[in-house]
Amino acid sequence: MSTTTEERTSQTPELIKIIQSSPPPMYRIEIFTPSELLKQPFLRELRDVINASYYDTGATPFVKTGPRIRSDTQLADELQESGFTAIAFAQNAVIGTASLKAWSPDSDDAVWKPSGYFEQFSADEIFSASTTVLDSLDGESQNVTCEGGFEVVAVAIKPDPRYRRKGIAESLVKACEEELKRKMSLAGCTDLADSCIMVKSIRDIKGAYWLKRGFRVVGEQYCPPFTWNYNNGFVLWAMKRELSV
């Protein structure tokens, strides 16, 4: 029995095009204390990478209208004496960074609410800082205290497809975690069971990212429009993860 060309075509298995992502680039990670960081010649480059990363808010309605880092020395000042910075270099160019400092949940007179508190409000109410949202903050009975030890800050990857989605940010945070454990060991602290690291994350920009990496939400804070130079109001998550032993 003969088969027509049309029938043969319909019986041909569909070709599936497999697109493989490019492998991660070769890079190294170095750790710097604040005093060491201030002596480096790449401070302006580091500042530019952080700001470029923070301006890139992906497929969200958020627009950042001002830089995360305004001066070459700001990051070192934020870390104070106990903090440190991990920096990823590819062929001596800065491609990413993450830092760790002492946790300070109340530095901005923050009012923290329990996890899930702001789910009762619509996106428009959150974005516009409606009176419904603002009035709800007065109920002190629902406030929570967010205790922590150390905070991951200024996590940034150069917005370039060669470096994004390659696990570099996760490696930088891991390097910070390992450096913290090393410092704690040198200080004679051998019990890491009760130690943790924290992160403050805008729920609708990077919240899902940190959830996938083992952090859990321990508090929520409302930030009205123009907080940190973002055009919309947002929910800020305080997130916690125990140190791996």
Order of helices and strands: HEHHHEEHHEHEHEE
Overall form = globular
Q: Outline the low-pLDDT stretches.
A: 1-20
Q: How much of the residues is beta strand, in percent?
A: 15-25%
Radius of gyration: 22 Å
Determine the fraction of residues in helical runs and give it as a percent range: 25-40%
* Total DSSP E strands: 7
- Biggest sheet layout: 7 strands, mixed
**Which second-level CATH architecture applies?**
3-Layer(aba) Sandwich
In CATH's first tier, which class applies? Alpha Beta
Class by alpha and beta content: alpha+beta
Count of discrete structural domains:
1
Mean pLDDT: 88
How large is the count of helical segments?
8
CATH homologous superfamily title:
Gcn5-related N-acetyltransferase (GNAT)
Strand order of the largest sheet: 1-2-3-4-5-7-6
Q: And the CATH topology?
A: Aminopeptidase
- Please give the alpha-carbon distance between the first and last residues: 70 Å
What does this protein structure show overall?
The protein is of the alpha+beta class. The chain has a single domain, classed as Gcn5-related N-acetyltransferase (GNAT) (Aminopeptidase), CATH 3.40.630. The protein contains 8 helices and 7 strands. It has helices at 5-11, 34-37, 43-55, 74-79, 123-128, 131-136, 168-186, 203-211, and strands spanning 28-32, 84-90, 93-102, 150-157, 196-202, 216-223, 234-242. A hairpin with a 2-residue loop joins strand 2 and strand 3 (93-102). It starts with a helix and ends with a strand. 30% of the residues are buried. The model is unreliable at 1-20 (pLDDT under 50). Residues 67-183 form the N-acetyltransferase domain. One of its GO terms (molecular function) is acyltransferase activity, transferring groups other than amino-acyl groups. This is N-acetyltransferase domain-containing protein. InterPro entries: Acyl_CoA_acyltransferase, GNAT_dom. It holds the Pfam family Acetyltransf_1.
